[in-house]
């Protein structure tokens, strides 16, 4: 193409040994980016156990369409990967079906029940880290034991922070929308209180600690302070918490996720956390469910939305184009920082984007089995044309099966 130009700021931020060139191509009609393969440290591919929601194959294909070449899969499966025997069932599927690099988490506790530590040592060489995502570890003693063992094994504890005693049957944020529409709310304290506890434990044990999907301003403040005090802590938030808040809620299951969309003040605090480096990365928490499971309104629907096919276009449209953050910062959040923290190599993984493409998000076009998103019919800019893993094409927009 005419007018080749190198985007040196992005190139300089890539890992030195396994880097690829992130380049900007220009012609009269379109603008094309070649970007390093994104890395999502928080996805749910639902297999084994719940293949009607998603499979390794469909999840990895959807990821490739979103420009992701590496993902970390959460352990709320059947069987739960809490022993080598159970983990191997998932690894066999990954080896046979995945189109991208998939790194499974091992559970922190047996069955994710919080009562007994999982077989952490025997799983250690085959998992990216340990998490009970979907459930918070309620016992301080259990979390401390897990951190001590993870420290010994050189692994990260990845925490879904939720205090069950504070939920009180809630299913959306305990705020103005809940009051106005007579819904039971989830208070912010149910998230930040366990984070505060775990920060103290991480400081005590020296464990590497990562917080999943933070959604409220208190969580940002606690993590910012912990970093200043030298705690080995990182965290993630998700695109929907940066773009939407409770003012955008509708009486529809596609707006139900855990943690919930919170207040405008919380959203703005998350954006500040992104800008000042308190929040290290953006993960999608891609959580597909069947249409039936998501068709029962805010109260009755399952928690969780899909997002891996739409993350980059949404973040580019609503954060980069309005000059809230730079494209280089977005690449740090989607690729560089998660790979550094979780030691995931980049190699020759990249995606090609037509940045001039403007369109409305249509869930009917998703490659994921899950179709539930609060961003249905949202206008975005940027369409993935192709994705390559280890130099091999795994997605081509012209060949994708709808």
- How much helical structure, as a percent, in the residues? 25-40%
The largest sheet is:
6 strands, antiparallel
Q: Poorly predicted ranges (pLDDT <50, ≥5 residues)?
A: 1-27
- Give me the count of strands: 16
Oligomeric state as shown? single chain
Overall pLDDT level = 93
Q: What does the radius of gyration come to?
A: 20 Å
Question: Summarize this, please?
Answer:
This protein is of the alpha/beta class. The two termini are 29 Å apart.
What can you see in these coordinates?
The protein has about 400 residues and is of the alpha/beta class. Helices cover about 30% and strands about 20% of the residues. The chain has helices at about 10, 55-65, 85-95, 120-125, 140-155, 175-180, 190-205, 215-230, 240-245, 265-275, 295-300, 310-320, 325-340, and strands spanning about 5, 25, 30-35, 40-45, 70-75, 100-105, 130, 155-160, 170-175, 185, 210, 235, 280, 350-360, 380-390, 390-395. A six-stranded antiparallel sheet has the order 1-2-3-14-15-16. A hairpin with a 2-residue loop joins strand 15 and strand 16 (about 390-395). Helix 5 (about 140-155) crosses helix 7 (about 190-205), helix 7 (about 190-205) packs parallel to helix 8 (about 215-230) and helix 8 (about 215-230) packs parallel to helix 10. It is globular and about 60 Å long. The protein starts with a strand and ends in a 6-residue tail after the last strand.
């Amino acid at each position: 193409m005419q007018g080749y130009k190198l985007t040196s700021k992005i190139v300089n931020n890539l890992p030195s040994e396994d880097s690829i060139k992130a380049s900007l191509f220009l012609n009269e009609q379109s603008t094309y980016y070649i970007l390093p393969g994104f890395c999502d440290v928080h996805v749910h591919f639902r297999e084994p156990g719940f293949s009607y929601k998603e499979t390794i194959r469909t999840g990895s294909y959807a990821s490739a369409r979103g420009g992701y070449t590496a993902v970390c899969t959460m352990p709320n499966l059947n069987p739960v990967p809490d022993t080598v025997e159970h983990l191997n069932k998932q690894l066999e599927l990954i080896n046979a079906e995945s189109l991208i690099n998939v790194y499974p988490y091992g559970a922190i506790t047996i069955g994710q029940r919080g009562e007994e530590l999982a077989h952490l040592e025997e799983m250690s060489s085959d998992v990216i880290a340990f998490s009970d995502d979907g459930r918070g570890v309620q016992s301080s003693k259990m979390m401390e034991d897990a951190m001590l063992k993870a420290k010994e094994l050189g692994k990260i504890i990845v925490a879904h922070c939720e205090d069950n005693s504070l939920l009180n049957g809630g299913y959306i944020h305990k705020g103005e929308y809940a009051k106005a529409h007579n819904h039971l709310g989830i208070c912010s304290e149910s998230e930040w209180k366990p984070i505060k506890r775990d920060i103290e434990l991480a400081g005590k044990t020296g464990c590497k600690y990562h917080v999943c999907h933070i959604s409220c301003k208190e969580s940002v403040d606690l993590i910012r302070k912990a970093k200043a005090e030298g705690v080995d802590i990182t965290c993630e938030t998700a695109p929907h918490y940066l773009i939407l808040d409770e003012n955008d809620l509708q009486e529809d299951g596609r707006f139900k996720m855990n943690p919930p969309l919170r207040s405008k003040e919380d959203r703005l605090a998350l954006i500040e956390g992104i800008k000042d480096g308190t929040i290290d990365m953006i993960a999608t928490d891609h959580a597909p469910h069947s249409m039936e499971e998501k068709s029962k309104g805010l109260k009755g629907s399952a928690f969780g939305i899909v997002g891996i096919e739409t993350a980059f276009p949404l973040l580019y449209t609503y954060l980069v184009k309005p000059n809230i953050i730079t494209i280089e910062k977005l690449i740090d959040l989607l690729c560089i920082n998660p790979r550094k923290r979780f030691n995931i190599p980049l190699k020759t993984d990249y995606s090609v984007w037509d940045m001039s493409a403007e369109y409305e998000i249509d869930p009917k076009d998703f490659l994921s089995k899950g179709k539930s998103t609060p961003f249905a019919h949202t206008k975005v800019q940027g369409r993935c044309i192709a994705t390559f893993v280890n130099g091999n094409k795994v997605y081509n927009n012209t060949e994708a099966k709808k």
